[in-house]
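Example: Oxidoreductase.
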Amino acid sequence: MTMPGPSQIARIFMPPRSAMQSGKGRSQEWMLEFAPGERQDLDPLMGWAGSGDTRGQLRLRFATREEAVAYAEANGLPYEVEEPKPVRIKAKVYADNFRYGRTENWTH
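Written out as structure tokens, the predicted fold is:
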């Protein structure tokens, strides 16, 4: 395995939940992925975009941030850690649909 070039820095981050995901499954794990090592070119025959950089396809999952950092350090990979953004959840109360003096219109 060749060592990454100066532009191939491993990125360690916690991926955000998808818009279709309401639960907490797979939302507490950390990922390690590499920045692109070379630009993509169009294949003259098929017209598909591609490159010879196979590290861009690699995504490793870890249970904790410390495990991901330990893996990068054990393999001599330069890395950057992106801390997760705080999630703000506004609690909704069903009873508020029927409260006295509400200003919103009834929608259903």
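Strands lie at 10-13, 30-34, 41-42, 49-50, 59-62, 79-81.
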